[in-house]
Amino acid sequence: MYNAQIVAGxxxxxxxxxxxxLKDQLDGQGEEAWHQAVVVENxxxxxxxxxxLRQARLIRNRLKEAPxxxxxxxxxGSQDMAVQACMAVVIKHSNLLADFMDHVVREHHRCFEPDxxxxxxxxxxxxxxxxxxxxxxxxxxxxxxxxxxxxxxxAEAGYIDNTRSMRLKKVVILPExxxxxxxxxxxxxxxxxxxxS
Length: 197
Hints:
This protein is mostly helical and 197 residues long. The protein is 65% helix and 0% strand. The chain has 2 domains: 11-64, no CATH class; 91-193, fold of a uncharacterized protein from magnetospirillum magneticum, CATH 1.10.3540. The two termini are 26 Å apart.
């Protein structure tokens, strides 16, 4: 049910836009073409080939289940539109982030509690462990790193002001994003994005 793949990167907007554009060019050309673009040409502009490959793999996995309308908004949309499309892709790929938003962030909005905190993450993982045994197998360092990445993702997507104060912000989902999610029947992702409504 849960995996820790999100630990490899937060929103990664710039990188995701580059991989989305590359995907159109390279799909069907095999792994050699991807290796050439990611490692040799260093399209993600990473310091090490290992880091570039790790992020490219994560992003490609995120994009696998993304509907065409999201890919188009990610690739060609405005900055705000790309941020929301990217967030939708990340939520769709990570049940961990989705459930944290749906249960914890939504509850904070509902109860007018303006700030998230690290204990919210700790309690969330404890609750998850009760029905998802894979969570209990994660090391403490993995749990901490996952929390850092989740909070950074929320900050980059505008759901909190920053990772220090973690003050909740109201996000207005753009009509194009909402329409895309509704047309492909992805009510879960849309519900997570609409946590403050």
